[in-house]
Amino acid sequence: MVRAGLTAERVTIAGADLADEVGLDQVTMSQLARRLGVKDASLYSHVRGLEDLRGRIALLAADEKTIRIAEATSGRAGKDALVAFADAWREYAHTHPGRYTATQTPIQIDPELAAKASGPRRAVELTYGMLRGYGLAEPDLTDAVRLLRSTFHGFVTLEAAGGFAHERSPQQSWVRALEALHTLLEHWPRSQEGDSA
């Protein structure tokens, strides 16, 4: 019998909390059932299995991260928007490591759930909107998005793994990296694709 009050949303949040504590790849349905005080079989009334749970965690995390970024960047432009965007990204990765991993891991997500989720779509809109403030257009926009994602994800992943052992603090390097990105975005080399010789 399913425990009263148990819903797909509650199962997902509990799974996300567990992922933050033990790591996304360490989450099992048995662990989650114990946390919720139910038998394993009860969970399958709400999620189809571990991959479905991970997909739901990814969508939850995308929504949460996007809301934080939107709040941080509201009313900002240029370098202020870039720094606020990056700091919100990094703070979310630090605060919710398991959730963050779900947003950066290829996971098979139920197409119906994905279609209803606004987080991933809103994240793209926010990122492209910020970069349009630098006067970028396609294909430069996509290239710049990939650069930012690579930089932010690479930095927070190395930082979380203890990869910055130098005496200079990671925070100092983070600030300088954002200054460098801002300078690059202001002087972005415009793509020559499609131009005739």
Q: How would you characterize this protein structure?
A:
The structure is a single chain. This protein has 197 residues and is mainly alpha-helical. The protein is 68% helix and 0% strand. The longest helix has 24 residues, at 50-73. The radius of gyration is 19 Å and the shape is globular.
Helix-strand layout with pairing:
Blueprint (H helix, E strand, L loop, with lengths): L7 H15 L6 H8 L3 H4 L6 H24 L4 H18 L1 H7 L7 H6 L2 H14 L7 H21 L9 H17 L11
Helix pairs in contact: 1-2, 1-4, 1-6, 4-5, 4-6, 4-8, 5-6, 5-9, 5-10, 8-9, 9-10
Note the main attributes of this structure.
single chain; 197 residues; 10 helices
Q: What is the string of SSEs from the N terminus onward?
A: HHHHHHHHHH
- Using only C-alpha atoms, the radius of gyration works out to 19 Å
DSSP E strands, number:
0
Residues in β-strands, percent? under 5%
Alpha-carbon distance between the two ends: 71 Å
Shape: globular
Mean pLDDT: 93
Number of distinct helices:
10
Instruction: Give the fraction of residues assigned to helices.
Output: 55-70%
What ranges have pLDDT less than 50 throughout 5 or more consecutive residues? none
Judged by helices, strands and strand pairing, the structural class is mainly alpha
Largest sheet: none
